[in-house]
Amino acid sequence: MSKATVANSSGARWTTYLRSRTLALNVLSLVAFLLVWHVAAVMVKSPFFPTPYKILQAFILLASQGDTMGNSLWAHCWASLYRVLVGFAMGVLFGVPLGLVMGLSPGLYSATRSIVEPFRFIPPIAWIPLAIIFFSGLPRFAFLIFIGAFFPVFTATLVGVARVEPIHRKVAAVYGASRLYVITHIVIPTVLPDITGGMRVALGAAWLTIVAAELSGGTSVGLGRMMVNYAELLQIPEIVVGMVLIGALGFAMNEVLLSFERRLFRWRWRVTI
Amino acid sequence: MEDVIKVRADITHRYGELLVHDGMKLSVKENEFLCLCGPSGCGKTTLLDIFAGIVKPSDGHVLIDGEPADPKRHNISFVFQEASTLPWLSVRDNISTGLRIKKLPRAEIRRKVDDIIGVVGLRGFENYYPHQISGGMKQRVSIARAFATDADLVLMDEPFVSLDQPTREKMQREVLSIWEHRKRTIIFVTHNLEEAVFLGDRVIMLSKKPARIVANLSVDLPRPRDPMSEAFVALRARCAELLQEMHETDAREECKEQSESVRASS
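ok -> C-alpha cells follow
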C-alpha cells in the first residue's frame, strides 16, 4: 500500500509540472499571437484592420455602456449561451438514447438507414427557412441548435456501441447477467468516452448554428445579432469583440466538458504509477 | 470417500454443416482438476461455451448437479484466453463483477473479495486500473474473479498462453495453490501437454474435428509435481505418443480418402 501511495504522489507531482508547463507555453503563444497581430495592424494602417488594443477598447465600451440599441453585452452573451445550452441539452437528450437503441439493434439501424443517413447531411443552416416559418423566439434557436448537436452525439454513440468488446459481454453473460445489466454495466461504460467526444463535436456545431441563426434575424439580442448590427455600421472592432467572445465561450464550455471527461475516465487517462 | 459426479456431458454440436463435436461423453468429479488437451481447431472454445451454458449444443446436454447448465442458476466461472478485465473498473471492482451480478450482500462481497485478493497476491493493488498493471497481474485479476464466487464449475481456456515462460510457470503453481485453498471443479483447456500433466488430476485428449475423446489418463502423481521426475516424463511421453498416433491415423485416412477419390474419378 505505502509503495503505491508513494508512486502515486510522485506521479501527481509530474502531472502538476506538465500542467504548469502547458499553461506557460499557452500564455507565451497567446502573447506572440497578439504581438504579430499588433505589428501587422500598425504596418497596414487601415481602419478596417484594428489593433488588438482597439478591440480591447471596444470591449470595455460595450461592457460598460452597452450597444447602440441599449442592450448590454452580457444580455447578448447570455442570450446566445442560453440558446446554445438548451439546444445542446436537447441534442444530447435525444442523441444518446437513440444512438444506444440503434446501436443495440443493428437491424433497426440498417432498416432505417435510408432515412437516418440523408438527414445527417442536411446542415442545420438548411433548416433555417423552415424554422423561421414554424417557430419564433427561443424554440426557433433551440430547434436549429438541436439539429446541429444531435447528429454528432447520435453518430458517436452509434459507432461506440459497435466497439463493445465481445469478450466483455461474455464476462457478464457467463455470470448470468441480464440484458439490462449488460447495457448498463458493459455497453454504457464502453460508450461513455465516445459520447463525451461526440458532445464536444456537437458543441462546435451548436455555436456554428447559433451565429448563423441569429444572423438570419428574428431577435434583437444575441452575439450574432450584435455583430450584424455593427456590420451595418461598419464598426469592425465591435464585430471582432463578438467573434472573440464566441471563441472564448465555446472554449470555456469545451474545457468544462474536458475536465468532466478527465474525472470520469480516470481509467483511460494515463495516471502513470 | 465416494466420488460425486459434478458435471455430466453428452454433446453433439454442429456449426452450420460442420460437425464439431460428435457424441462426446464426459463427466467430471466434484473438485476434480480436469485438463482437456487437443490440436488447435478442435473446437475447445466452443466446448467450453457449451459447458458454460452460453451456447446450446445442437444435441445432447450438459448437466451440473443433475440439472442443465445455466449461467443464471449455476455459479460458473470462466477464465478467458485473452485479457478480459474490464478497463473502466478498478482491480477490486473487476474481481467482484461475478459477485455483483449474482447480487450478493455488499458485506459478503467485500469479505470474499478481500479474501481472494490475499490468495492471488494482489493486496495493495485493489484501487489500480487494469492499464496500470502488467499482463500477468491482469490474468491474476481474471483468476481471482473466477475463484471469488463459490463456483460450481471453473472453466479455463488456455489462460496462460499469452504469458512468457517464467510467468506462466509461476501462474501454474499459483493456480494449483488457489485450487488447493479453494477446492473447485475445474476444466482447464490447453494444448500444452506438459501443462496438462503438471496441473491435472486427469488429462483428456481430443482429436481433430469432429472432436472425440482419444485418451483419458489419470495422473496419479503427488503434488507438487516435478516435471523432471521419471514418472512425469513417462506420462508426458505417453501423451505425446498418443498425439503422434492420432496424427498418423489422420494422415492415413486422408491418404485413403484421396486415393479413393482418385480411383472414383478415373
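Residues 1-47 of chain A form one domain.
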